[in-house]
């Protein structure tokens, strides 16, 4: 394999885009981006509860928060991949940080205008930035080192996401909900100008967490501007054995290749289902707790999301332990099946046990997103299509916009938030079947398995 030496920085760039060794500092810098989108995503769960009361929304309308968020991911992923292709992963990451900063800044005028649509604009702007970050960082993390450890690297980076989720929910719990108590109960006794004025006062609280996030984002942007980063892109080899320019196939050529790649398409659809499953469980866990226990406050209910993210983090560690010793797809088949059981309990047991079952579901989410991601990326044999392929997998996050909306509709139509959890249960059943089919295929064709 033709190699391009990067002697000054200590790594060797290989022709397939991977590196001879992992540059530790650069890898850690990329990994620290992961919790930043976790914080933004978990804050959405707080905003959904806040907006529902202040703007008097039904469950379907509250799902527009996730629609704006994941819709931004969907629309920008391909443009982000084109930026990576024409420039670099580093440039795409910096672009993402800038849009994230802009989105957070829009919360300041949004809190003054005090309209639902203005907040959706701010969330959409943040999503544009996160689409750049996730499109670049998910693939970049897997490429920063030897190919055989690609899944291990991405799983390590993704393990930091729950820490961002926990940080986001804590910021929301103490800075947005604070000592307000049960906002819905309090505002139910207000009318007219009094209700509007109090609602606007509550919307001012949404500014608080984004002030702290802005400081972190600006610091990260400065660091990335100063630190040299590997290109980690596939190159072609000339007839004389020298390294040619980076291969840049057209978008049309790439789409044609990927469209005829059955394994890749199956993985993308599975990621779509998984993104919707994870998002919808987290979007409505707080609402489920408030519905089943009318005596708890919004702040107390948000604590259940902290438990969910802790469970997710621990689940990742446990799953990583088993995946290092046993079959990856076999491990996640078991995790997914137990997740289905947890969600069945969630929509059938009519007491707070349902909330704890929803929390347990997060444990079984484990490292499913990064595993599906790298598993799907493995189906791209021609590595010159990697950037766009990674972007299309990120586009599957649109499931986080569609499936919560479906659950919201089911809740409105049936009049039962709890019963609507049948939607993620069906999603998890599909995920279980996906991992089981992949496990059976690998048992029959062990030569296709990659070292991880």
UniProtKB/TrEMBL annotation:
| GO molecular function term, any single one | fucose:proton symporter activity
Q: Which GO terms describe its cellular component?
A: plasma membrane
Tell me if Calcium is a UniProt keyword of this record: no
Q: Name one Pfam family in it.
A: MFS_1
Q: What is its membrane topology?
A: Multi-pass membrane protein
Its localization reads: Cell inner membrane
Residue intervals passing through the bilayer: 24-43, 63-84, 91-110, 116-133, 154-177, 210-227, 272-290, 296-314, 326-347, 353-373, 385-406, 418-436
Q: What SUPFAM superfamilies does the record point to?
A: MFS general substrate transporter
| The keyword Cell membrane appears for this protein | yes
Q: Which UniProt keywords apply?
A: Cell membrane, Membrane, Transmembrane, Transmembrane helix
Report what the protein is called. Transporter, major facilitator family protein
Q: Which organism is it from?
A: Secundilactobacillus kimchicus JCM 15530
């Amino acid at each position: 394999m033709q190699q391009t030496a990067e002697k000054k920085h200590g790594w060797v760039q290989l022709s397939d885009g991977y590196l001879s060794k992992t540059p530790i500092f650069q890898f850690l810098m990329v990994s620290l981006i992961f919790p930043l989108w976790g914080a933004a995503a978990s804050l959405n769960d707080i905003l959904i509860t806040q907006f529902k009361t202040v703007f008097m929304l039904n469950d379907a309308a509250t799902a527009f928060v996730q629609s704006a968020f994941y819709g931004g991911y969907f629309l920008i992923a391909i443009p982000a991949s084109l930026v990576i292709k024409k420039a670099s992963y580093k440039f795409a990451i910096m672009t993402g940080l800038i849009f994230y900063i802009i989105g957070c800044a829009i919360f300041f005028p949004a809190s003054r205008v005090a309209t639902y649509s203005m907040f959706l604009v701010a969330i959409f702007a943040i999503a544009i930035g996160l689409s750049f970050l996730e499109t670049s960082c998910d693939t970049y993390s897997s490429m920063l080192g030897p190919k055989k450890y690609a899944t291990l690297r991405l799983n390590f980076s993704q393990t930091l996401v729950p820490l961002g989720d926990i940080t986001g929910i804590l910021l929301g719990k103490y800075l947005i909900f604070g000592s307000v108590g049960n906002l819905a109960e309090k505002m139910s006794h207000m009318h007219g100008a009094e209700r509007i004025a109090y609602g606007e006062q509550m919307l001012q609280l949404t500014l608080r967490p984004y002030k702290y996030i802005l400081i972190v984002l600006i610091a990260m942007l400065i660091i990335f501007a100063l630190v040299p980063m590997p290109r980690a892109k596939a190159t072609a080899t000339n007839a004389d054995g020298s390294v040619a320019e980076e291969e840049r196939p057209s978008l049309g050529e790439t789409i044609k290749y990927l469209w005829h790649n059955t394994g890749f398409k199956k993985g993308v659809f599975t990621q779509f289902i998984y993104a919707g499953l994870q998002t919808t469980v987290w979007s409505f866990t707080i609402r489920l707790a408030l519905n089943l226990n009318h005596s708890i406050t919004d702040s107390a209910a948000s604590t259940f999301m902290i438990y969910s993210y802790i469970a997710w983090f621990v689940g990742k560690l446990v799953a990583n332990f088993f995946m290092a010793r046993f079959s990856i797809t076999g491990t996640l088949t078991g995790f997914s099946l137990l997740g289905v059981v947890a969600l069945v309990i969630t929509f059938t047991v009519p007491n707070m046990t349902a909330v704890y079952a929803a929390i347990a579901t997060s444990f079984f989410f484990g490292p499913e997103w990064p595993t599906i991601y790298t598993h799907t990326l493995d189906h791209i044999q021609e590595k010159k299509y990697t950037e766009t392929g990674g972007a299309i997998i990120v586009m599957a996050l649109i499931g986080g916009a569609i499936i919560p909306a479906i659950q919201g509709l089911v809740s409105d139509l049936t009049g039962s938030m709890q019963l609507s959890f049948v939607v993620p249960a069906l999603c998890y059943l599909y995920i279980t079947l996906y991992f089981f089919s992949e496990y059976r295929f690998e048992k029959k064709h062990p030569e296709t398995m990659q070292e991880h």
